[in-house]
Amino acid sequence: MSQRPPLLVAAILAASAPAFAAPAVNTAVFATDVRVPSSGSTGLQTLWNLSVSSVDACTGVTATFSQGSQTFALLLNADPVFTPCNFSQNSFPFAGQAGLLAFAGSASPWSYTVTDSTGSITGLFPINAAPEVLPFAQNVLASDASRTPTVSWTLPDLTGFDVDRVRLRVLDEDLAGTIVYQADLASDATSYVMPNGVLEINHRYTYVVLLDDLENGLLENRSRRRSLEPIAVIPEPGTWALMAAGLAGIVVRLKRRNV
């Protein structure tokens, strides 16, 4: 059998070996993130967000953002709806809209640094050229406590605002508020039927409606409103009947074993 020249073997091995490089930043977002005021908070914040691809597990990646001598950590979002790795941070709430808009509209971009086991990458967040304080959706409600409720909401008057998307998020309050599902909807959507297989019986869920203003496909401004109370999913009457029948069958079998 003929032997391949050593240089050819080395070239083949090099070509088939995985390419390890620094992490890649897929998207970088700097946006206004306005929430319904509560507990004395204005809800007027900004958001820094990065979507990152890495050869490492997301827990092995670190991300920071900075401006001048100030550097802050970006936090890993471990919710299952985020893929690949997602990191974000919010500012402290601003006292008023003018302060938020001046900060968000600064012409000095923030920078980011992402590091994994293969190295680091740096870059700049986009400048927010048109910061806005978007109004909120109203009356976020679920139709019932089934596993497939209709979630509905009322849109505010959006005259003069540039809303490109409605996003619905579902938070499982029995999993520490983990975002277990999200759906991107048309800008005029006012309801959504939850698909079967998402909600679990005896779990409590909160529904969040976000109004998103996008620029070149990236978030620029958004508002968010939650449903008032977590809604527990309970078995339907037919499910209770099946469970009772199953338990009765178990009891009968146990009795027969004891005869």
Describe what is shown at a glance.
By secondary structure, the protein is an alpha+beta fold.
Notes on the protein architecture:
This protein has 2 domains: 24-124, Immunoglobulin-like; 138-237, Immunoglobulin-like (Sandwich). The chain has helices at 6-16, 97-104, 237-258; strands at residues 24-35, 44-53, 62-67, 70-76, 85-90, 111-116, 119-124, 138-142, 150-154, 165-172, 178-185, 191-193, 204-215, 218-226, 231-232. The termini are far apart. It is built from 3 helices and 15 strands. A hairpin with a 7-residue loop joins strand 8 and strand 9 (150-154). The strands form 2 sheets. Strands 1, 2, 3, 4, 5, 6, 7, 10, 11, 13, 14 and 15 form a 12-stranded mixed sheet that branches. A 3-stranded antiparallel sheet has the order 8-9-12, with no helix packed on it. By secondary structure, the chain is of the alpha+beta class. The model is unreliable at 1-18, 239-245 and 254-259 (pLDDT under 50). Helix content is 16%, strand content 41%.
What gap, in angstroms, lies between the N and C termini? Answer: 75 Å
CATH class of the largest domain: Mainly Beta
CATH topology of the largest domain: Immunoglobulin-like
What portion of residues belong to β-strands? 35-45%
Total number of strands: 15
Q: Which geometry do the CA atoms define?
A: globular
Biggest beta sheet summary: 12 strands, mixed
Give the quaternary arrangement of the chains.
single chain
Give the fraction of residues assigned to helices: 10-25%
Structural class: alpha+beta
**Estimated radius of gyration:** 25 Å
CATH architect. name of the largest domain: Sandwich
Order of helices and strands: HEEEEEHEEEEEEEEEEH
